[in-house]
Structure to design on (482 residues):
């Protein structure tokens, strides 16, 4: 089989991949409760003759589909979790929730999981036809949003024997991902006080809500004295009740702490813990600290990035129809200049002068329909992904493929809308082709994998992966009353 046949295999099975994509879009299940979505992907893998193991790493919605034997072990990473509050009718170009307040695929993970599936199936055919030794794996990775499922999976060592991992993320651009990302910890601080009538006997009360407020003030003063790349955000997840005439006996605030490297997050975490203890002391309340999850920064791998880029430029971008362009134009025109995402500028920067020129060409187009020039980058994106935990263990390469219109903001109803229409299905199938073609190169040119591993060793510079999530912490669904 020739590498060029990979695209044909994916096109022949396009209805199957789109059907899985569509099911996951409709189920719209959030972190760690993606039971039906995982079923849909597992059933498709089994129908293709993959051996499916589920659960893995103790996560009920995590799984691993495997085909072949021996090395190299080439893995594709799939995600399929949705976001709360982003329900939206597919193809609508104005905000129109299917279920008011319901979940929606506002980050395109329905496309992500199905595109990685297409890559695994096509590459499996290529591996089979080659007669060579090798294993293809599809890792079903749940709870990327707020859950860091891959970090729990990496903690269990399930990526240890993988030689190279490839993945993608739906986006507004077509580009290789050459960046690092922020490591993070997510921690809940729970305060317990004493209730009392807030007018008649406030002196008998000890307010947990006061503790939350004082803690937040303390952290807001801390901001000036941490490294500028750090981020500290919080949500008050329990304000203690709805009655102002009751001193609140319980309250909880959820923190997300981020910095370029895990030891930096650890240091900030310890200072935030001191502030929380101080708030408890000031208010006479008790404090319970609940570690929820953590993820590592992404370790870039330029060897894999170059393989992905070569294949991406050879394949170009999907052939969009007039209908796709019309949909994109309507969404694009609805985004005010002040609401435009900066993705294009950010992602074109590594391409240097050529990147700048591409960004200038694409800026006013509803679809970013070119592959952005690639360049290595040491830039740390001010966001996080649990792909970071995989990348500390295994050389990992990623691309973005456009599945929504140019300048669409992240985690938005526009993304949910795009995720249900042909534009994103084309991007999903295309991502499968790029990843499968890159995997074929890794199979046919084994020194590439050795060079990718050597780069990982050099980048880690003697350091090794230690999952930041304590052993006694297990994943919990969001909104589960943790
Ligand atoms: Zn995402």
């Amino acid at each position: 089989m020739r590498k060029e046949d990979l695209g044909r295999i994916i096109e022949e099975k396009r209805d199957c991949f789109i059907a899985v994509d569509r099911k996951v879009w409709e189920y719209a299940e959030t972190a760690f409760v993606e039971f039906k979505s995982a079923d849909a992907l597992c059933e498709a893998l089994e129908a293709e003759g993959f051996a499916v193991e589920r659960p893995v790493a103790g996560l009920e919605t995590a799984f691993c589909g495997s085909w072949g034997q021996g090395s190299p072990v080439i893995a594709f990473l799939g995600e399929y979790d949705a976001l709360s509050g982003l329900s939206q009718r597919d193809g609508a170009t104005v905000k129109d929730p299917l279920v008011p307040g319901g979940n929606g695929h506002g980050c395109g993970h329905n496309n992500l999981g199905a595109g990685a599936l297409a890559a695994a199936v096509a590459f499996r055919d290529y591996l089979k036809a080659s007669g060579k030794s090798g294993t293809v794996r599809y890792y079903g990775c749940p709870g990327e949003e707020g859950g860091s499922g891959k970090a729990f999976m990496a903690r269990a060592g399930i990526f240890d024997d993988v030689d190279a991992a490839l993945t993608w993320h739906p986006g507004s651009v077509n580009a290789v991902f050459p960046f690092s990302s922020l490591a993070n910890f997510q921690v809940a601080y729970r305060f317990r006080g004493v209730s009392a009538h807030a007018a008649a006997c406030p002196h008998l009360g000890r307010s947990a809500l006061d503790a939350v407020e004082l803690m937040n003030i303390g952290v807001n003063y801390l901001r000036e004295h941490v490294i500028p790349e750090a981020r500290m955000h919080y949500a008050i997840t329990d304000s203690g009740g709805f009655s102002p005439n009751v001193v609140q006996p319980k309250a909880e605030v959820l923190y997300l702490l981020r910095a370029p490297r895990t030891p930096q997050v650890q240091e900030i975490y310890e200072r935030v813990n001191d502030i929380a203890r101080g708030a408890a002391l000031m208010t006479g309340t008790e404090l319970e600290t609940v570690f929820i999850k953590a993820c590592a920064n992404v370790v870039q791998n330029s060897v894999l990035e170059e393989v992905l880029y070569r294949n991406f430029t050879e394949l170009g971008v999907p052939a969009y129809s007039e209908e796709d362009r019309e949909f994109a134009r309507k969404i694009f025109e609805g985004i005010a200049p002040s609401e435009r995402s900066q993705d294009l500028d950010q992602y074109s920067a590594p391409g240097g002068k050529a990147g700048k020129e591409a960004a200038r060409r694409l800026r006013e187009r509803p679809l970013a329909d070119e592959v952005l020039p690639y360049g290595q980058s040491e830039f740390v994106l001010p966001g996080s992904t649990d792909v970071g935990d995989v990348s500390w263990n295994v050389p990992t390469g990623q691309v973005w493929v456009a599945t929504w219109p140019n300048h669409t903001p992240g985690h938005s109803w526009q993304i949910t809308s795009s995720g249900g229409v042909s534009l994103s299905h084309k991007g999903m199938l295309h991502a499968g082709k790029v990843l499968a073609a890159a995997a074929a190169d890794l199979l046919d040119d084994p020194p590439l994998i050795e060079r990718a591993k050597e780069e990982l060793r050099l980048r880690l510079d003697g350091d090794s992966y230690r999952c930041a999530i304590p052993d006694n912490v297990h994943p919990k669904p969001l909104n589960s009353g943790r």
Summary: DSSP finds 16 helices and 13 strands in the chain. The first strand starts at residue 51 and ends at 53. The CA atoms of residues 6 and 125 lie 8 Å apart. The mean pLDDT is 96.
